[in-house]
Design brief:
- The structure is a homodimer.
- Chain A is built from 22 helices and five strands.
- By secondary structure, the first copy, chain A, is mainly alpha-helical.
- The first copy, chain A, folds into three domains: 141 residues, MgtE N-terminal domain-like (MgtE N-terminal fold, Alpha Horseshoe); 117 residues, CBS-domain (Roll); 177 residues, Orthogonal Bundle (Tetracycline Repressor, domain 2), CATH 1.10.357.
- In chain A, the strands form two sheets. Chain A has a three-stranded mixed sheet. A two-stranded antiparallel sheet of chain A has the order 4-5.
- In chain A, a hairpin with a 5-residue loop joins β2 and β3.
- In chain A, α5 packs across α7 and α17 packs parallel to α22.
- Chain A starts with 8 loop residues before the first helix and ends with a helix.
- The interface between A and B is large, with 128 and 128 residues.
Chain lengths: 464, 464
């Protein structure tokens, strides 16, 4: 092997940086041959990374230069939205040539993103057996077990020997990228167990597979949510998970490398919701597109916070006669917001990791109440001290300090309970609980916090 | 196989719910035999889940009932912090029996969590060869490639045949849980390539491994950060990644199931930082422990927001003569906070996925500026309209509306740029950029926002 093949982390990153600039120059000069030479030494994932950093026109130009096999290896590594854009620039002929080279789960993924008429054209152009298989797989929602499973799995009948199993592996070794297990089925095609690949190497050839197969079967139905699938594969440390129908007939299998993508996707989605982003922002997006991703939540926050302006104006008399109250608006808002967000995020994570069952949600809420009370008290005491030290004299009386601290405590407890409860309610009504972590709850807490604060101020002023 | 073995998702979740209650009753009655019978049918990961939901005393009680093999299978699935707590209750004899049964990476993980003197006692009690190996592995930081790698890998010399490779697999098949590849080394022990397990099944026994090995080697050094390792394995769709020293001598290998844990850990950490949590909150934590996790950031936010109270009091004269200005404090704070958080979170995600290189950070910041300008303008126009409609007449003049909108635009642009820049600065100074997504930047933006707002109000009032 030559030294050039020795990729290390450092070199990998360097290659990307330099290449992106070199590629841009070569594209400007329309120097196709040099581009191909330059890309030839790269891993398809690196080629995809370069494309992901180019604009649509340049990326499509390069993509069209690639032969079908390379294109199929590159296409699976492209960013999802950008992949649809690039494929939108190709004719159905080229797409079907690429799809022909793909594993069934990747092929279905890509066709799912195509406009319906293009997908049909593509299907009509590929091998009939493949297209039947793809049509079957395309029935399942994209984020279900059926949507991410591959129908490329090796199986044998329960009466087969190790020798038969090895023959099956040999038959499919080239076409199926990942073979970790050989599945064992009965006469009716029902899944009975599996044999780890390493066992095929160490047991005598005449051994019956059903004497060495593992029967600790964990499987899912094709309608299971991909997040559920990820949780099961993580929990049980599986590299491969069979998908079966209601009669336990095996339909496909999901491999861990696809689940890595799911886990990332889900984590990214959760974080997007916290940030109030309507979709993932990718490096080649224009200013306008990024603006569109962020604006919906900003606009919603603006409208909700406008209520706060109206709310405050309704307390006009209080503010006019006791403007000192306004000094502490930021504290009340920020502390309510922070404690509410903490509770919401922790609750959403617990729900999505399956830690909380509804039976236990009440005891969990009681715990949240205890936490809110403790932290609220701690912050109230600090605030009272702070007010006494920094706002001495007759401007902020000790009596007002007590009211202020009480308001902070009330706001923090209310906000925490709101933050912890809303995800549970969303879950109950089959809405994604993660929405509760976003600006929606924060602004709701702002409004609630100010109402509580000014109500207490009203009481204070009335009693003065 | 009996029907009882057919785990499906639904049944799995049901089992957990019922079991937890049954187990609690059995613990109360100290009915050890029934507990063991009940746990015998469960997957070790499910036993661990039950323990994770119990308090320390009950969990330790059950853990002590398990035989060493089961205990070793359960211990790897326990929540990290809780595992340390449970092991803290055991003597070094029992711990070394458990460690003896573990894969080297898991063993090292667990020993890393033990107090130093306990870890040494454990090491002195296990097999000498193993303890040397563990000591070697324990040198690496827990979150480095060396810290997560396992030394359980199969390798052969480059002049070996397939037959030799199969013999090596056979020798280690029982001890090594995951075997996906056989690594090929030269006379000096340097890594040359690898052979996929399926190839051992389909090629003639006399074939030399160096004629069929894959030379597209991707490897990392033991000091590489685990996040870097995860990124590489994801990007190149690897199930197994070799770790080599500076002479390319193979030290160990990292498997994808460990990386799944890393990805989850990192996503959880990112989200924790956004929420301002000092560590992950686990289901069995007490109210006091949860309070301790959340309080540091709340206290910090309180102190920072207290500056805002002092700041507002310094604008006392303005507020007194023009209290209408205070109506819009919530809008200014919330919009600055939201746009700053959006920018910070997007930047942190881009940095951690390796999308942004420093060379490109300037063009990225220019883009952020464009986005902030667009969204700021959109929100300003809406605010101006809202103020005109809802605050008509002489109370809020159109002129003040213009100043208010200008303040909103300035605050949103400043907050966005602050949110986008701080992660880059943190990264530059080798601090975790994700800290920038937490309450720290939000409160910094609150302060900055109010300063900008009241500065513009001052100008407005001066010109009136």
């Amino acid at each position: 092997m030559t030294e050039n093949n020795n990729l290390t982390i450092k070199e990998l990153i360097k290659v990307d940086k330099e290449l992106l600039e070199n590629v841009s120059i070569l594209i400007e000069n329309q120097d196709s041959q040099s581009i191909l030479n330059l890309l030839a030494d790269l891993h398809p994932a690196d080629v995809a990374e370069i494309l992901n950093h180019l604009n649509l026109e340049d990326a499509t130009f390069i993509f069209n230069l690639l032969d079908n096999e390379t294109a199929s290896e590159v296409v699976v590594h492209l960013d999802d939205n950008f992949r649809s854009d690039i494929l939108g620039e190709l004719n159905s002929e080229k797409i079907s040539d690429i799809v022909d080279e793909l594993d069934s789960d990747d092929a279905v993924d890509i066709m799912g993103d195509l406009p319906e008429e293009v997908a049909e054209e593509v299907l009509s152009k590929i091998d009939k057996e493949d297209s039947e298989e793809f049509k079957e797989l395309m029935k399942y929602p994209e984020d279900s077990a059926g949507g991410i499973m591959s129908s490329d799995f090796v199986y044998v009948h329960k009466d087969s020997t190790i020798k038969d199993a090895i023959r099956e592996v040999r038959k499919n070794a080239e076409e199926f990228e990942h073979i970790y297990q050989v599945y064992v089925i009965d006469d009716a095609g029902r899944l009975l167990g599996f044999v780890q690949l390493k066992l095929l190497l160490i047991k005598p050839l005449k051994t019956k597979v059903n004497t060495i197969m593992s029967e600790d079967l964990i499987f899912v139905s094709p309608t299971a949510d991909q997040e559920e699938v990820a949780r099961i594969m993580e929990k049980y440390d599986l590299v491969s998970l069979p998908v079966v129908d209601e009669n336990r007939i095996m339909l496909g299998r999901i491999t861990i490398d696809d689940i890595v993508d799911v886990i990332n996707e889900e984590a990214t989605e959760d974080i997007q919701k916290i940030a109030g982003l309507s979709e993932e922002q990718e490096p080649n997006y224009s200013v306008f597109r990024i603006s569109r991703i962020r604006l919906p939540w900003l606009a919603m926050a603006l409208v909700l916070e406008f209520f706060n302006a109206i709310l405050l104006s309704s307390y006009e008399n209080i503010i006019e006669q006791f403007y000192i109250a306004t000094f502490f608006i930021p504290i009340v808002m920020a502390m309510g917001g922070s404690s509410g967000t903490q509770a919401a995020i922790v609750m959403v994570r617990s729900l999505s990791s399956g830690e909380i069952w509804f039976k236990h949600s009440l005891s969990r809420l009681i715990k949240e109440f205890g936490v809110a009370l403790l932290n609220g008290l701690a912050c109230s005491v600090v605030l009272l001290l702070g007010v006494t030290v920094f706002f001495p004299g007759n401007k902020v009386t000790f009596e007002f300090g007590i009211f202020l601290s009480a308001a902070l405590l009330t706001v923090m407890v209310t906000a925490t309970m709101l933050g912890a409860t809303i995800p549970l309610i969303f879950k109950k009504f089959k809405t994604d609980p993660a929405i509760a972590t976003g600006p929606f709850v924060t602004t709701a807490n702002d409004i609630l916090g100010l109402i509580i604060y000014f109500s207490l101020i009203t009481i204070y002023l009335a009693g003065r």
